[in-house]
Write a structure and sequence with these properties.
Layout (H helix, E strand, L loop, with lengths): L5 H14 L9 H21 L3 H4 L2 H10 L4 H5 L6 H20 L2
Helix pairs in contact: 2-4, 2-6
């Protein structure tokens, strides 16, 4: 029997450890609410376009948006994962989602 190389086993265990704690766990409670609202918005966008949600934005990008709370297109464009095309396509809608959360229920 041949065993897998030691490096490969290590990478798998590290990846498994990373998956046990979601990246959004670093957000405070309001940040978590923003993240969940952004995920809901992303799912609606993805379904409307017939694509997987990660094509619209990755979770890491939504976490960054939830954490930084950009208030204008310039600030939103500074978030990693928000390029010019996505800024033009989704920017105003994302800012609207964030603004609606500030207003409260």
């Amino acid at each position: 029997l041949r065993l897998p190389p030691p490096g490969k086993e290590r990478r798998q265990s590290v990846a498994g450890e990373r998956e046990s704690r979601p990246a959004s766990a670093d957000l405070d409670e309001p940040g978590q609410r923003r993240f969940e609202a952004l995920r809901t918005w992303r799912l609606e966008q993805a379904r409307g376009q017939g694509v997987p949600p990660y094509v619209v934005f990755h979770d890491r990008t939504l976490i960054e948006i939830a954490a930084h709370q950009p208030r204008n297109l310039e600030a939103l464009g500074g978030v990693a994962g928000v390029g010019q095309a996505k800024l033009e396509r989704y920017g105003e809608a994302l800012l609207a989602v964030l603004a609606s959360l500030e207003e409260g229920p």
